[in-house]
Amino acid sequence: MEGIHERSAVELVRLIRAGDISPLEVMVETLRRIERVNPLLNAFISLRAEEAIDEAKAMTRRLGAGEAPGMLGGVPIGVKDLEDVADMVTSFGSVPFKNHRVARDSTQVARLRKAGAIVVGKTNTPEFGYTGFTKNLLFGVTRNPWNLERTPGGSSGGSAAAVAGFVVPVATGSDAGGSIRIPASYSGCFGLKPSFGRIPLGPAPLLQMYHALTVGPITRTVEDAALYLDCTAGYHPCDPASLPHPGVSYLECLKRAPKGLKIAFSPRLGFAKVEKDVLARVEEGVKCFEDMGHTVELWGGSIPDVGDAWAKFMDSEIYGLLHRSLDVHRVEMGKTLVHALENIRSFCLPDLIEVQKTRTALNEVLWELFETFDLLITPTTPTEAFGAKGPPPSEIEGEQIPLLWAVAFTYPFNLSGHPAASVPAGFTSSGVPAGLQIVAPHHRDDLLLQTAYAYEQIRPWRDRRPDL
Question: What pLDDT sits at residue 211?
Fold first, then answer.
């Protein structure tokens, strides 16, 4: 029989509602699990243990009095340390912000807590989420549960390590270039980057500063991600770009498996390099979609390599938020981030126009693709997880690659805004996970989740556990 820490969020909610376990029992076991495995992983960097126990006790009493739990009633969650939890420090993984205590929850966290989730603590992230592996000067290195010498990815690496390490069933992530999908791929989780605007951002110091960032879940099951989206999706005035609630339950729609889809498979998007071992696992996964009765065609098209445009876009937005801190705290910040922010100072209007031209060209290609196909499948990452302390790979199969090609399959869909998810595709010969990415048309988060769920049923990934 599975222990409490091995249960999914959906299972925990069902057991709590049935009275088989209590929120207090769940929280006590969660904190014991953190005590046992967090010294190995460094997934959680701060805890609210006493507050979480008190909230679990109060919820247990209310349930005993006949009160109905919320949709996530009693589920312990981790929150990425780029996102606010009231009365906790949001450090952004940055030394200058080590005492940056906040007064209120982010909109996403507030909605999760309103649904009954209990925040256990904050999970580690690279400084301001800037790299695809998780290491910073404030809290150090986070490690992959499947191989402690490898990275769980980034920038939601602490969240992925906590979920893959069976510490919590759900953790928040954010994704501006792959920061949910990369760690999901490296850590063997399900990672959902919803449509741009599906879950509101903020409250933020600058309205609509971000144009490629989304927030969403890292989970062990598709059901848990659908439940998460049910609790968090919908417009909020703090984010004018946020979308109205679609009016359907993502969890309920999972069982309505789509039939006869026409799916494009692109192993390289026309430009990327991929490790043979990773590609073999992805191709095995692709066959599952054919087994489900869908038509899968090798896509002969290509997208423009938008890496340079994406980097300028993101660096300029981070600079807009951090330029004053950079002037005062440069020596306390990581060299990679400082170097990028220094270089982007010269970014000007003609550069922005070129970035938007690139985004337009990308949108036109994907517009045409999704007029013909229902979904697009790619590898999630070109390689398996690399060393925990970095750096990212500089070559693939003996060929030198530009830095951003280490995450070549994720950032294009931040510039385009399409929903995308990483599902486990199996394990490489090194014994670490590989990921398969599913991309859906704009605003078709429902189709994405339905297809991922159907894939999960015929190729289940819950039967293996990391040896911690």
Answer: 81
Selected catalytic residue, list 8, 46, 80, 266: 80
Catalytic residue among 46, 106, 179, 266: 179
Residue 207 pLDDT exceeds 70 = no
- The question of whether 155 is a catalytic residue gets the answer yes
Average pLDDT, integer, range 325-353: 92
Q: How far apart are CA 296 and CA 200, in angstroms?
A: 34
Quickly state the pLDDT bin for 208 (edges 50, 70, 90).
low
Do 134 and 114 touch, CB atoms closer than 8 A? no
What residues contact 444, with CB distance under 8 A and at least 6 apart? 195, 419
The full set of domain ranges for the chain reads 7-308+347-458
Q: Which CATH superfamily is domain 7-308+347-458 in?
A: Amidase signature (AS) domain (3.90.1300.10)
Per residue in 428-446, pLDDT (tens digit) is 999 999 999 999 999 999 9
Would you tell me how many other CB atoms lie within 10 Å of the CB of residue 136? 27
To the query of whether residue 80 is one of the catalytic residues in this protein, the response is yes
Give the pair of three-digit tokens for residue 296. 């899968």
What's the pTM?
A: 0.97
H/E element, 78: strand 76-80
Per annotation, catalytic residue among 8, 46, 106, 155? 155
